[in-house]
Design goal:
The protein has 605 residues and is α+β, with helices and mostly antiparallel strands. It has helices spanning 26-32, 35-46, 99-105, 143-153, 166-169, 189-195, 214-230, 239-243, 248-255, 276-279, 316-322, 331-344, 348-363, 382-394, 398-402, 406-412, 437-445, 458-462, 477-494, 506-517, 523-543, 555-559, 574-588, 598-603, and strands at residues 8-13, 19-23, 60-63, 78-83, 90-95, 110-114, 121-126, 129-134, 160-163, 177-179, 182-184, 198-204, 283-287, 297-304, 307-312. It is built from 24 helices and 15 strands.
């Protein structure tokens, strides 16, 4: 067994019921590390080209990282990898809380699920063994109800549970998977899970992880915790422990990068009513992931129409998606929307985005109350937002169309193409690239569609870290994005939290992996692993038919500017963007069509 790893991958075929446990070869672990890298390797190696996302042959893969399950700070996350029903691309989504550590304790570095069960089922991974259990009694339950039922059933063994809700069962394309109120949110992994008739995964076990050099590991762990404690962003008095990502509303509003009214504007007149300070009175308590000293999340509670609603969050992305994007200025509505999405199991970014899109279609007369079952889908109507969330999850009325996401919905609503803001079928998060040109490139080349967690330029372009840059400038942004991509891919192969990366350096991570595994391990090797993973996901997308033409931004962001605010008049200029994209291809070792060159592939092994 490799120190730090369980050394086991569980393979489950739900179609024929076969289960096997294979060894994780040390050469594979060292080449891909875990998380994104290991998942990309497994998906690319075992999924035949051209398989549709809902085909039983699609793989659903849960992976951990080498540090997962140890007390090293900010590494409690785990990944789910599959082919996305939203985009048809490689898809990885990450979640914190406790599921990742428990997967290790249950005896596995990864679970690979293929096939489709005849009846609803759940998986039980316990002490190195996997079994398939009947889940008929769980059908139709929310994610939280499902988790509670299964935790009650195995109460003596203190399990961890990841589950889908009705949205996943109904194959809402942006359905996610929920565990301990945390979401594997983006890209539709919950819909893939639902297509397999798989309701939940339950983890039980107490397997201990071997540490090669316990004294050295303890020392680097202690040092990193001390660095977190004193860091101005993530330390005890920092913004993340105090208010989490809620603080971002004020930042994007001040810079003209807060998507508003379905990307028609990028400042919101009522931003102060939905910023972090406005939400403070609803916060009940902070929440942290396993062994994490930061505690960036929090539980919020609100009374909504006489009912008490409690949710973890909302995070910034939810605040933008159901707030400024839909012109909602009532925190109670945003909290209620967050809770509904968690219960049903849906990505809040895509859900809020498709509702805002529908609101603009309604505003411009492309759809009316006959199409919406009488719902007044005007911007700012909080009741309408909540009603449509129910409809989407149940695929009823207008919800059936909107459950397909913005790209597919726009193909059915005549005249709405210009309003459909997405990249490769995935709606962007809450940072308007018209006001931060590096983010434009980030969205265009991200491997799962528009995504800020592949090279988020907020640190550089909005926060000025490590030093200020001109956010409206194109020059130099290709290099910046490439460097950030390696950083984020490093986090994703380690399955480490990017917030921990404020205080923990790559040298720290490399030293921790070396002490854990006993490998002679360097920063250069760590970065090479990240680059290898990034190129492997690109190869996957190329194999699935994606080309340079797909590395593009939606029409609105290139032709229509905001009419007010700090980014007024700005668009992503096509010629400047194309030059930036070509420069990026050269920097990463891809040809003029965006395909990794033979030279680059040989260099990366």
């Amino acid at each position: 067994m490799i120190a730090g790893y369980t050394g086991k991958i569980g393979w489950i075929n739900l179609s024929d019921g076969t289960i096997r446990v294979e060894d994780l070869e040390e050469s594979v672990a060292r080449k891909y590390l875990g998380g994104k890298g290991l998942g990309a390797h497994l998906l690319y190696s075992h999924l035949k080209p051209g398989i549709e996302a809902y085909d039983p042959d699609n793989l659903l893969i849960f992976t951990t990282g080498p540090l997962t399950g140890t007390t090293f700070p900010a590494v409690a996350r785990s990944a789910v990898i599959t082919k996305s029903p939203m985009t048809g691309t490689f898809m990885d989504s990450f979640s914190g809380a406790y599921f990742g550590p428990h997967l290790k304790y249950a005896g596995f570095d990864a679970l690979v699920i293929v096939g489709r069960a005849e009846r609803p089922c759940y998986l039980l991974a316990e002490d190195g063994k996997v079994s398939v259990k009947d889940a008929g009694q769980l059908s139709g339950l929310t994610t939280l109800e499902t988790e509670a039922r299964l935790k009650d059933e195995y109460a003596d063994q203190r399990p961890s549970v990841a589950a889908i809700g009705p949205a996943g069962e109904n194959r809402v394309r942006f359905a996610g998977i929920i565990s301990d109120k945390r979401a594997y949110g983006r890209g539709g992994a919950g819909a893939v899970m639902g297509s397999k008739n798989l309701k939940a995964v339950v983890l039980i076990g107490k397997q201990k992880l071997k540490i090669a050099d316990e004294d050295a590991f303890k020392e680097i762990n202690k040092r990193c915790r001390a660095n977190i404690k004193k860091h101005p962003m993530v330390g005890k008095e920092g913004v993340f422990p105090k208010i989490g990502t809620m603080m971002t509303v004020a930042l994007t509003q001040a810079t003209g990068t807060l998507p508003t009214r379905n990307w028609q504007e990028n400042t919101f007149d009522n931003a102060a009513q939905i910023d972090g300070h406005a939400f403070e009175k609803y916060i009940v308590r902070p929440r942290a992931c396993f062994a994490c000293p930061i505690g960036c999340s929090r539980d919020s509670k609100v009374m909504q129409k006489g009912a008490e609603i409690m949710t973890e969050g909302p995070e910034y992305e939810t605040m933008f998606a159901f707030g400024s994007h839909c012109e909602i200025s009532d925190p109670a509505v945003i909290i209620a929307a967050d809770k509904l999405c968690d219960d049903y199991g849906m990505d809040t970014i895509s859900c809020g985005s498709v509702i805002g899109f529908a609101m603009e279609c309604f505003d411009k007369g492309l759809i009316n109350k006959n199409d919406t079952d009488g719902i007044d889908l005007s911007f700012g109507n909080g009741d309408a937002v909540l009603a449509v969330i129910h409809a989407i999850a149940k695929k009823e009325g207008i919800g059936r169309l909107l459950s397909e996401g913005v790209k597919r919905a726009s193909m059915e609503i005549e005249g709405s193409a210009e309003m459909a803001v997405h990249v490769k079928g995935l709606e962007p998060p809450g940072y308007d690239p018209r006001g931060m040109k590096g983010q434009a490139l980030t969205y265009a080349v991200a491997d799962r569609g528009a995504c800020h967690m592949r090279s988020n330029t907020i640190r550089t372009e909005l926060l000025g870290l490590p030093e200020p840059v001109d956010r409206f400038e194109y020059e130099g942004k290709a290099q910046m994005v490439r460097d950030l991509q390696i950083n984020y891919a490093t986090f994703d192969c380690l399955v480490a939290c990017a917030f921990g990366g404020f205080a923990i350096t790559h040298d720290d991570y490399a030293e921790a992996v070396a002490a854990l595994t006993g490998w002679s391990f360097s920063v250069d090797e760590l970065r090479r692993i990240a680059e290898r993973a990034w190129n492997l996901t690109r190869l996957f997308n190329v194999r699935e038919g994606f080309t340079k033409k797909d590395d593009a931004l939606p029409q609105r962001l290139c032709t229509t500017s905001a009419t007010r605010g700090p980014s007024e008049g700005e668009v992503v200029e096509p010629a400047a963007f194309d030059k930036m994209l070509s420069e990026y291809y050269q920097l990463v070792g891809w040809d003029e069509n965006g395909i990794p060159t033979e030279t680059k592939l040989k260099e990366l092994g």
